[in-house]
Amino acid sequence: MAEKICVAVRVRPSISEESPSGTFWKIEDNRISLHKLHCTPISGLSYAFDHVFDESCSNSKVYELLTKDVIHAAVDGFNGTAFAYGQTSSGKTFTMNGSLNDPGIIHRAVNDVFQKIQMISDREFLIRVSYMEIYNEEINDLFAVENQKLPIHESLERGIFVVGLREEIVNNAEQVIKLLESGEVTFPTVNRHFGETNMNARSSRSHTIFRMVIESKGIDTGSGDYSSSDAIRVSVLNLVDLAGSERIAKTGAGGVRLKEGKYINKSLMVLGNVINKLSNGAKQRAHIPYRDSKLTRILQTALGENAKTSIICTVAPEEVHVEETKGTLQFASRAKRITNCAQVNEILTDAALLKRQQLEIEDLRRKLQYELEREKLEMELEEERRSHKEREQCIRDQQLKIENLSSLVSDGDRSSSQRSNYSELPDFSPVPDSFSNVADEDTWFKMNKGYIADLDSLQTTPARKVQSFPPQDITPSKHEEEVQINSRLMGEISELKQELDLSNNSLESSKQRYGNLEREFQKLKDERDSLLQTVSESSKNITFLTDQKENILKDLNCEVQRRKDLEAEIKQFSVAFASRQRSLASIHGEFKSKIEKLRAENLVGY
Ligand code: ADP
Ligand code: MG
Q1: Is the Cβ–Cβ distance between 67 and 212 less than 8 Å?
Q2: Which one of the ligands is nearest to 84 CA?
Q3: How far is the C-alpha of 467 from the C-alpha of 459, rounded, in Å?
Q4: Lowest mean pLDDT: which of 396-400, 408-412, 518-522?
Q5: pLDDT of residue 354 exceeding 70
Q6: What is the average pLDDT value for the chain, to the nearest integer?
Q7: Which residues are paired to 574 by β-bridges?
Q8: Can you tell me the distance from the alpha carbon of 175 to that of 183, in angstroms, rounded to the nearest whole number?
Q9: Suppose 267 and one of 77, 293, 302, 348 were both cysteines; which one would form an S-S bond, judging by CB atoms 3.0 to 4.6 Å apart?
Q10: Ligand 2 center to residue 98 CA distance, Å?
């Protein structure tokens, strides 16, 4: 269904203390008009929009009245874009990023999306976010500083996309807020790559696009309804903080500013052109110059084609900004005329990541299946090759055997004919069946015209006789017989071969057993040797010890004898000593009595 783009104007609170001297903007309901001081509106400068928010309006109210529908539609599968357009310092960033007390549109949209998808139980969602800036017509990744000057590509599969832009898959609002913060972007906007002042200056010269890609798929209820469970919806939601719309070049800026100004002017001009063309109605929509700037190219799907769009035009109330405000309001009026024809992106192409992942999985599964089958086939082929080779070998063996047998048989023929003079016999004299068991010499005599055959040899060589016929004389029955004999012989040969194989196998195993036994025997021998060694060493020790013991015993006996001798000597000595003592005692007594006698004599002499 065709619907107009939702356009609102937001007037920020006045920053300067000065009160207006000539004109002022008056807001009544959804209308904003320039008034002469204490007077009526100036004609031609009164604009009506979907909403006009005065300076007391909060971000919460702006979100509720202007953006919420776009966000909810995005969850339902519609592309959506919310722009903030206006001159520098008119409140674009305040509206998009908000303040700590009053979070902006991005913050609210993120919360809202996750709240809403939690309430939808019959679909599963996959959400990706990215954040980029377009500065001097170059795209830089605000989530990854290293991703600078990224190109735009277009493919059937993915549509228009920025190559190399980091896309984060997110599961909850907090994760997104953290990403925005860690991406050095905080609320309100402070990109820490640049000094704050620097950033403010830069942010007014770059467009920033926060993008959410919402994919959803009906949860398979098992109803088998292929179309409803398989349909994947992909919607892209852009939240865009545009560069300042004031005409910098006009203010006489030079150098970098002039360059920046040219790019801003160019891209906003292209945006204006695109909006103009779109607003001119379907008839003149032949060529929309989306490709003229990166901004319009990136936002192409969200502008006029298949999207719900809301534009918030921020204006400054001060008199000094009247001209810029007029410009902004004119842009807003043109935008108001755009009709969009939004429809759910129920999808179809392989653009959906979910779909792509599914396809990839299917592809991998197919490849795996293919690999498995290939392996199986290879194995079968190998098997086939082997059996073919075996068959060939078998055939060769058989041929060889047949040749050997044939030569054997003809050799045998030659030798037997030499032995029994068969060559003199008529070529062929078939014996009637009834005679086959008859070993009657008379009959043989008659039948063979007096020739007496060697009956023993005749009975044991029927096959040889048949074999000796030249090939052209072989009748079918003979040939069959030959084949039978051959096959019997071959059977015997193969049996023999099998036996030989078996013998070889048993020989092999015997060899192995023999080897094992020999090893064991060697081991035992070694053990025995070492035991013998130990025993001989032990017996040596024993002999040595016995010798030692004997010596000791000898010594001991000697000692005992010596002791005995000594004892005898002591006895003798003590006897001698006692007699000597006695004789000494008697001498002593004699001597004593002599002295007393002398003494007594002496005393008498005096
Ligand atoms: P822009 O992004 O358009 O250059 P900003 O959002 O940075 O402008 O706003 C400029 C100044 O005005 C900032 O200090 C901001 O906090 C303040 N401001 C803008 N709009 C509002 C508003 N509606 N209410 C309160 N303060 C505002
Ligand atoms: Mg800003």
Answers
A1: no
A2: 1
A3: 15
A4: 408-412
A5: no
A6: 79
A7: none
A8: 12
A9: 293
A10: 11
Nearest Cα neighbor of 86 from 336, 324, 335, 277 is: 324
CA atoms of 3 and 306, how far apart (whole Å): 11
Nearest CA to ligand 1 atom 4: 89
Q: What is the pTM of this model?
A: 0.58
Whole-angstrom Cα distance, residue 329 to residue 484? 111
- Residue 134 clears pLDDT 90, i.e. is over it: yes
Decide which of 3.40.50.1010, 3.40.30.10, 3.40.850.10, 3.90.360.10 is the CATH code for 3-189+204-219+229-348.
3.40.850.10
Alpha-carbon dihedral sign for residues 349, 355, 359, 362: negative
Strand bridging mode 79-86 / 307-315? parallel
Is-cis flag, bond preceding 476, omega within 30?
Answer: no
Residue-wise pLDDT for 417-466, tens only, equals: 444 444 444 444 444 444 444 445 555 455 555 544 444 444 444 444 33
* pLDDT number for residue 472: 46
Residues of each annotated binding site for ATP: 86-93
Mean pLDDT, residues 544-556: 90
- Beta carbons within 8 Å of 435's beta carbon, 6+ residues apart: 443
- Residue 475: per-residue pLDDT: 56
Amino acid type, 266:
K
Cβ neighbour number for residue 313 with a 10 Å cutoff = 31
Q: Is 266 exposed, middle or buried (0-12, 13-18, 19+ CB in 10 A)?
A: middle
At residue 46, the 3 state secondary structure works out as strand
Interatomic CA distance for residues 53 and 323, integer angstroms: 19
> How many whole angstroms from 569 Cα to the centroid of ligand 1?
142
**Cα 91 to ligand 2 centroid, rounded to whole Å:** 7
Q: Give residue for tokens 């920020």.
A: 12
Write the Ramachandran bin of 449: left for phi over 0, alpha for psi from -120 to 50, otherwise beta. left
At 304, the pLDDT band (50, 70, 90 cuts) reads low
DSSP track, 491-553 = HHHHHHHHHHHHHHHHHHHHHHHHHHHHHHHHHHHHHHHHHHHHHHHHHHHHHHHHHHHHHHH
Q: Which of residues 323 and 257 earns the better pLDDT score? A: 323
Quote the ligand 2 centre to 75 CA distance (angstroms): 27
| Nearest CA among 351, 353, 342 for reference residue 76 | 342
Top mutation candidate among 52, 56, 61, 94 for ligand 1, by most atoms within 8 Å of CB: 94
- CB-side neighbour CA atoms (13 Å) of 413: 16
From-to residues of CATH 3.40.850.10 in the chain:
3-189+204-219+229-348
Which protein residue has the closest C-alpha to ligand 1 atom 22?
Answer: 12
Pocket-forming residues, ligand 1, beta carbon under 6 Å: 12-13, 86, 88-94, 204, 244, 314
Ligand 1 atom with the shortest distance to the CA of 59: 23
Ligand 1 atom nearest to 86, measured from its CA:
3
